[in-house]
Design brief:
Blueprint lengths: L1 H17 L2 H21 L3 H37 L18 H9 L8
Length: 116
Amino acid sequence: MRMNVIQMARMSLGRAIDAPMLVKAGTLGGLIAGLTLGVMVSASVGIVVGIWLGATIGIAAGVVMDREERRRHHRARVIEDGVPDGELPEVEAPEARSDVGAWLTEWMTPPPPHVG
């Protein structure tokens, strides 16, 4: 049993070390915020819940920041490489609402009075 816990801790630590820098920064910021919130709320339970909640939110924020940074880097690389064949790739445009008058009438008409 003890070896399983130690092996699990090593695997978790290995994944944490291999995590991107923005994920580490988000996690650290979340841990600090959670610890601070936990200390203000109560001594033991607040600290544990605060650290858990802060780390969870920090990891999520770090993953999102890392994903956006990778997308930005990829877009910059595509722009720098140039557009192949001199044409921009087709992008699906959102559907334009052709019946704006009907939509406006629907939303601006008050509901009928409730009888009964």
